[in-house]
């Protein structure tokens, strides 16, 4: 075989055309043989490989997708990116969203969808894209959106971005949250439920509660938040359950707000009657954030959770008839309770005796707090809050009022309402004295009527016994 030499190539047009025709005929022959001898699947693979190799240059960039949700759970990286990127908005961004709630110190500025934010980290250029698309799996007629961030950067910096940059984003976002912490009150009833700022002014200093009970609650909260390693060592989920029970108007909601303000925890208000079934309850519980308080008010009234035997008789309908006791217990003390850290669950009820004993045991409702009627110490707190009367300089009517409170069942809410009726201290306290005297008189009448009714029953029973003896 002779070596190829450019001198041997044809130079005339006819020779070139003849060579081109021969080559084309050879290619057509090869293609015809391939089509006849190779199966379609193999041909398609070969063609795509050749096309990709010769016509599609490989990209030098990598894209990380950061979805809003990880299944049912909020994606912490997405939440951190939302906070972090607010500090990276520049003049190149054409569309911005601006909000501000009464509790926020400054404007909340965020990019609109399909906008890009440029960031630099250790010499690496990173591009963030905010993407919103219709969630086709939501089943709600297309009203829900699936939100995500796309992080684009050179492939050669993959290790640096994943190991160092994303950790930097998480740490910086946590620092920003602490600087501009605004407590949230959220009603977890829908997948994209909204929240409002928690601006309840209640604190432990303003609560009309026994000082010793206050101190006990504060110490229990402090002990809980600092014992992360202890809970992990003993194999328990890092959560705490409280039961607040007592008559209406004794300050159960105010105590919850005071706990949230003290710990700087967000509050989730869960209405069990609006939860469709145990599966939806699981989704709601998993969507709550760490360092939060989950509130289930009036647990004895919101759902029928007393008859456990009926659940065993009809397990087939458990997915369509609402929350069951076993389902609720599983989420507050079962395997699902470990999905999240540093959480407090608060139950409230006016009638503790109506609750199933399974709910009351430690591990579910760890601390039982009786919210009683107002006491003299509670009145002193209210008098200081509403009228500026301090123990060091008491009013002449304070002693009489405290004596009436000890002999009368009156709630802190009722006393607070009386104190608000006048800005004049004398008028307000005189009105409170008259109110307490009326309450005491009404209570005495009720007790007298009850005693007379009991005596009448005893007399009737005695007469019936006498008639039987005569017979």
UniProtKB/TrEMBL annotation:
InterPro entries according to UniProt: AAA+_ATPase (IPR003593), AAA_N_dom (IPR025753), At3g28540-like_C (IPR058017), ATPase_AAA_core (IPR003959), ATPase_AAA_CS (IPR003960), Mitochondrial_chaperone_BCS1 (IPR050747), P-loop_NTPase (IPR027417)
CDD domains documented for this protein: RecA-like_BCS1
Keyword set includes Glycoprotein: no
Stretches assigned to the AAA+ ATPase domain: 238-375
Gene Ontology biological process terms from the UniProt entry: response to stress
Gene3D superfamilies given in the database record: 6.10.280.40, P-loop containing nucleotide triphosphate hydrolases
Keyword Hydrolase: yes
GO molecular function list: ATP binding; ATP hydrolysis activity
Cofactor: Mg(2+)
Annotated segments matching region Disordered: 441-471
SUPFAM superfamilies assigned: P-loop containing nucleoside triphosphate hydrolases (SSF52540)
Record family assignment: Belongs to the AAA ATPase family. BCS1 subfamily.
PANTHER family referenced in this protein's UniProt entry, alphabetically: BCS1 AAA-TYPE ATPASE
Protein name: Putative ATPase, AAA-type, core, AAA-type ATPase domain-containing protein
Organism, scientific name: Rosa chinensis (China rose)
């Amino acid at each position: 075989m002779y070596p190829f030499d450019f001198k041997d190539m044809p130079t005339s047009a006819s020779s070139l055309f003849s060579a081109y025709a021969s080559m084309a005929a050879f290619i057509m022959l090869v293609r015809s043989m391939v089509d006849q001898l190779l199966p379609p699947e193999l041909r398609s693979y070969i063609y795509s490989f050749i096309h990709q190799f010769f016509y599609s240059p490989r990209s030098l960039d990598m894209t990380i997708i950061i979805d809003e949700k990880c299944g049912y759970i909020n994606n912490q990286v997405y939440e951190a990116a939302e906070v972090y990127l607010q500090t990276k908005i520049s003049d190149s961004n054409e569309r911005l969203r601006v909000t501000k709630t009464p509790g926020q110190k400054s404007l909340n500025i965020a990019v609109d969808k399909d906008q890009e934010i440029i960031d630099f980290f250790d010499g690496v250029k990173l591009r963030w894209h905010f993407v919103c698309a219709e969630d086709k799996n939501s089943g709600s007629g297309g009203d829900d959106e699936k939100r995500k961030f796309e992080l684009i950067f050179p492939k050669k910096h993959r290790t640096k971005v994943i190991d160092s940059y994303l950790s930097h984003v998480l740490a910086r976002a946590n620092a920003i949250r602490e600087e501009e912490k605004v407590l949230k009150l959220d009603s977890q009833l829908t997948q994209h439920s909204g929240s409002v700022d928690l601006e309840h002014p209640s604190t432990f200093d303003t609560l009309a509660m026994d000082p010793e009970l206050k101190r006990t609650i504060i110490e229990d909260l402090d002990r809980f938040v600092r014992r992360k390693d202890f809970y992990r060592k003993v194999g328990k989920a890092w959560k705490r359950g409280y039961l607040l029970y007592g008559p209406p108007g004794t300050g159960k909601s105010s105590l919850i707000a005071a706990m949230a303000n003290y710990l700087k925890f967000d509050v989730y208000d869960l209405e069990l009657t609006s939860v469709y079934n145990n599966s939806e309850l699981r989704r709601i519980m998993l969507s709550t954030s760490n360092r939060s308080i989950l509130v289930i008010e009036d647990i004895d009234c919101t759902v029928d959770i007393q008859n456990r035997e009926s659940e065993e008789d009809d397990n087939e309908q458990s997915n369509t008839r609402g929350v069951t006791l076993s389902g609720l217990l599983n989420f507050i003390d079962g395997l699902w309770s470990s999905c999240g850290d540093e959480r407090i669950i608060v139950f409230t009820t006016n009638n503790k005796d109506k609750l199933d004993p399974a709910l009351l045991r430690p591990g579910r409702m760890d601390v039982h707090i009786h919210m009683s009627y107002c006491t003299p110490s509670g009145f002193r707190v209210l008098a200081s809050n509403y009228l500026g009367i301090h123990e060091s300089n008491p009013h002449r009517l304070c002693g009489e009022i405290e004596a009436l409170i000890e002999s009368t069942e009156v709630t802190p809410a009722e006393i607070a309402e009386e104190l608000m009726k006048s800005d004049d201290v004398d008028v307000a306290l005189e009105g409170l004295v008259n109110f307490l005297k009326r309450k005491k008189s009404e209570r005495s009448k009720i007790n007298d009527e009850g005693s007379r009714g009991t005596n009448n029953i005893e007399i009737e029973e005695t007469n019936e016994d006498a008639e039987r003896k005569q017979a």
